[in-house]
Design a protein that fits this description.
This protein is of the alpha+beta class. The protein contains seven helices and nine strands. Helices cover 35% and strands 25% of the residues. Strands 1, 2, 3, 4, 5, 6, 7, 8 and 9 form a nine-stranded mixed beta sheet that branches. The longest helix is centred in the C-terminal third of the chain and has 23 residues, at 197-219. The protein starts with a helix and ends with a helix.
Length: 220
Amino acid sequence: MKKIKISLLILVLSLMFSFSISALKTDQITPTEDFYIYSASPQKVAEIVKMTEEDLKTDIESKKIIFLAVDKENTRQIQLTETENKFSTTVSNLSNLSDSSIRSLVPDITGAENIKGKVVLHGEQKYVRIELKSKECVLTQFFTVENKKLYTLSFYTNVDVSTDYIKDTFFYKQKTADSITVKEIPANLKTLTIIGFSVFGIIFLVILFTLIKDYFKKEE
């Protein structure tokens, strides 16, 4: 029954009127001065995350990361990915959907039944904000679909570091009064100063990308 319900919902959404909004640009992300941005300082970023420049470049390209920034201590990382999958091509633009429709799709995107998110606005574009945490790390993610592309903006923050920088980096307005469900993530998510960049990529794939692909494989 759930499978039929979700399939019908996505079918209805795909028939909705579509309007054009320019895709999320990297210049909309404005880290504070204590961050090193990969596009400007690739050598320094590689040094901070303890990877060679070549390996870091390969990792970025394989994970479709179009923006990366880290602070000097590697206690905060910012990543933006741009991907395309069956979900994004079907929905086309998240802003076309009602807030309730977006919230109903969150569990299917994340692959976790009890995950909820807030619908927020950045400019006129709708995003879903989700927060996950362990004893060492807080992961805050914003995702949206624009022009059939799935954009995922991820902030990895040590638990003893303030997350106030997120709103300074990516200003958003809350659209709903729904509370965020904060889910515990596995204990093996180590402190950011210890783990390297590749592990961040794995966490991201497990939380957002791999499970989306698995879900749609079951639908086919």
